[in-house]
Amino acid sequence: MSIYLDYQATTPLAPEVRAAMLPWLGCDNGFANPHSPHKMGRAAAATVEVAREAVAALLPKGGRVYFTSGATEALNWAIKGSGAQAIALPDTEHAAVRDTALWRGDCGYGVTLMPVRRDGLLDLAEIPAGQGLVAVMHVNNEIGVIQPIAEIAARARANGALMLCDAVQSYGRIAIPEGPDLIAISAHKIYGPKGVGALWVRDGVTLEPLLHGGGQEGGIRSGTLSPALCAGFGAAAKVARERFETDAGHVAYLWNNALSEIPETWKINGSITKRYKGNLNIHINQIDASRLISEVRGVAFSAGSACASGSGRSSHVLRALGLTEAEARSSIRLGFGRYTTTQQLHTALQMIKTAVAEQEIG
């Protein structure tokens, strides 16, 4: 079995999550539609609401959680449903935001791609006035850099704009600051199931529906919810809240161990201090990252975002930091978390170092 070091792409399903989902996977009476008025439907609806409260407990006060099929839907809904005529975003945003914004640009809306510094952080002075929406990721999925969301939100509000925060990589891992008007999250990044996410909407913010139909979610998001997926999301959020300090301490310990083992010639991409420590993105000079991933068969790691792995493009995030095409293609991402052991990380690094040395000799 491979050593799994791709926690930014997805996380293992927590046993507590599996237990919470089992009663609602269609066995016995756990198959009812949560939008039906009868007793079985009401029981399913109650499960959804318990999950909604658990998910909301890790988010700012003064808003509502709307369940979606995932973060991609939540981000598309936030951007398209806000009605913003102009949107500003860092050049390092996830494709779900970046490509949606660029599509809006093709449709005649204003789009501003804001540059970041070499460390991946956004300079607040780059946020332009006259925007309807400012979208900034809290923790970058490729390089782990933590953006100053509270300050960005304050700047956006002062300029009369809404602020959208992609918190997929931070939710349940680090505290989400007050300030955003819209927050997108996903269950499978916090040891929950795939296929369910949520959009948190600040009280007073109005969104147009992205999906029309029965209006099951507060009249503005249509589609039958899955009690099983919602229950899994809720259980994952509950465990994340209970283990918040423990998980953070474990990840920091692994990070320090990794730094003590990697050669000095390997350069970390992005800020080292303003960073989620479960994400180690490294440039290894003159190696072929794709070949390395193929050669180190006993370790599951990546060269960047899983969402763009089939595009053939080098990472737009790394190029935005100022890396050349060659440097971007010689960078790897190691992601670790709750179930990663110190021995696994050590073994994986030894295997990667051996493969790198063989490439350099070859």
Fold topology:
Layout lengths: L2 E2 L10 H7 L17 H18 L6 E6 L2 H11 L4 E5 L4 H12 L3 E5 L18 E5 L11 H10 L3 E5 L15 E5 L10 E6 L24 H16 L1 H18 L5 E2 L10 E5 L5 H7 L3 E2 L15 H5 L4 H4 L2 E5 L6 H20 L1
Parallel strand pairs: 1-11, 3-4, 3-5, 5-6, 6-7
Antiparallel strand pairs: 2-8, 7-8, 9-10, 10-12
Helix pairs in contact: 1-6, 2-6, 3-4, 7-11
Give an account of the 3D structure.
The protein has a 7-stranded mixed β-sheet with strand order 2-8-7-6-5-3-4, with helices on both faces. A 3-stranded antiparallel β-sheet has the order 9-10-12, with no helix packed on it. It has a two-stranded parallel sheet with strand order 1-11. About 50% of the residues are buried. The protein is an alpha/beta fold and about 350 residues long. The chain has 2 domains: about 5-10 and about 245-360, Alpha-Beta Complex (Aspartate Aminotransferase, domain 1); about 15-240, 3-Layer(aba) Sandwich (Aspartate Aminotransferase, domain 2), CATH 3.40.640. It has helices spanning about 15-20, 40-55, 70-80, 95-105, 150-160, 225-240, 245-260, 290-295, 315-320, 325-330, 340-360; strands at about 5, 65-70, 85-90, 110-115, 135, 160-165, 180-185, 195-200, 265-270, 280-285, 300, 330-335. The mean pLDDT is about 95. The protein is built from 11 helices and 12 strands.
